[in-house]
Amino acid sequence: MRSTFTHVNVSLTHQVRNVLGVFKLRIGAMIMITALVGLLVTPGDPLTVIQWLVIAIAVFLSSASAGAFNQYYEYENDRLMARTQNRAFVSGALSRSPLWLWVIASLLAGSVFTTWAVINAISALFVFLGAFFYAVVYTVWLKRRTWVNIIIGGLAGSFAVLAGAAAVDPHLGPLPLLLALVLFLWTPPHFWSLAIANQADYAAAGVPMLPVVVGPKRASQVVLISTIALVLSSLLPIWFGAGLIYLIGASMGGGYFIYKAWRLANSPSRATALGSFFASLIQLSLLLAGASLDSILR
Fold first, then answer.
1. Mind listing the pLDDT tens digit for each residue in 240-254?
2. pTM (two decimals)
3. d(Cα 197, Cα 211) in Å, to the nearest integer?
4. I need a surface site. Which of 82, 167, 205, 208 has the fewest CB within 10 A?
5. Chain centre distance of CA 34
6. C-alpha distance from residue 158 to each of 31, 122, 184 (Å)
7. What is residue 47's DSSP assignment?
8. Which CATH code fits 173-298?
9. In this predicted model, what pLDDT tens digit does every residue of 98-128 receive, in sequence order?
């Protein structure tokens, strides 16, 4: 009896993990953090605790809905890639039922409507656009058609920053707009580094990611150039209200990312590509932490 109960408990836990995995919650958490940083750096009347919770949860759930749609729509292509062939819809761990589309649509609609009702229409629009650009513009329209897919699809992260900023002031100022630009420029070198590491997967699936189209050597050079452009752009907020703590975070993280991208450009390999990929995460983390502390302590 105890053995049966343990087996059921393990199976239930595994199935819960499968369900949560569909929603790409780690990406959702990162997108939520960018929205809250956009909120913090925007001057204006302070939000209530309820409004803080609404924008955080709305951005998180809208991102989760987009992530789930990505897996729902891409399940056949995911079979062709070693990195994704164990996803729940691919393995059959979860049934790819039309019910999922209702869940996805309900999460997005609820997030947008609640933001509109509790905060304002502009913030709600950016919540919607963030999910729309990832789920439809990137996943459906661009991913399998052109190598610029991730450039345009990367606007999803920028819209999260703007959703948080618009919650404080719908008339967006230069600082949140510049942070949105930083997120826009961050996505390509971040994702292309990962694509270089997994080039064989994308080639097998017929996805025209940059290293598949131009080769890993040329792609690694583009990563370095785009990383330099990103880091230079990340310093612009200094002239529009960001302070010393932001400068330290942006400079340290940016310098490290450039170093790893330089190593990738000089010696393209899976190891150096993953090094550049993880450096991009460190760069963004230090920049967002610096922006947040700068605003809190100002």
1. 988 999 999 999 999
2. 0.92
3. 9
4. 82
5. 9
6. 9, 14, 6
7. P
8. 1.20.120
9. 999 999 999 999 999 999 999 999 999 999 9
**Residue tagged 């990195």 (tokens):** 83
Domain boundaries, the chain: 19-170, 173-298
| Angle at CA of residue 59, ends 58 and 62, nearest 5° | 80
Sign of CA dihedral 45, 50, 56, 61: negative
- What the block records as the tokens of 59 is 């951005």
**221 CB-contact burial (10 Å; exposed 0-12 / middle 13-18 / buried 19+):** middle
Q: DSSP H helical segments within 88-243, as ranges?
A: 88-91, 99-118, 121-132, 149-153, 155-168, 174-197, 199-205, 210-214, 216-234
For domain 19-170, say whether CATH 3.40.50.20 is its number. Answer: no
User: Side chain identity at 220, as an amino acid letter?
Assistant: S
By CB atoms closer than 10 A (0-12, 13-18, 19+), residue 65 is buried
Sequence-distant (6+) residues with CB within 8 A of 200 are none
